[in-house]
Design a protein that fits this description.
Blueprint lengths: L1 E2 L11 E2 L3 H12 L6 H32 L6 H12 L2
Antiparallel strand pairs: 1-2
């Protein structure tokens, strides 16, 4: 079990339990100086998951729109570019 500490007043304190393999991976990331703390690492993972979910939602919306209209006028290249642009936001 690990308790995340706060560095800013707007951050929330949480108690999180990790499985042994996940705890070992977290420790290795910090030991390799990829991250300076568990809080930083967990927040980064959450940001990445949120960004990925945003892209999935965009693709789902694009598919639903295409299904309703029959076809999309965007090329595969345009759709791929839009998807990559969304990731870089």
């Amino acid at each position: 079990m690990y308790i995340c500490t706060t560095r800013h007043d707007n951050m929330k304190r949480q108690s999180i339990s990790f499985s042994e393999p996940n705890d070992e991976w977290l420790n290795s990331q910090i030991a390799n100086k990829e991250y300076s703390s568990r809080s930083e690492l967990v927040n980064d993972l959450i940001r990445q998951a949120r960004k990925q979910q945003k892209q999935i939602d965009w693709i789902r919306l694009k598919i639903e729109k295409a299904e309703k209209s029959g076809f999309t006028t965007d090329s595969k290249t345009q759709i791929l570019k839009q998807s990559k642009d969304l990731l870089n936001e």
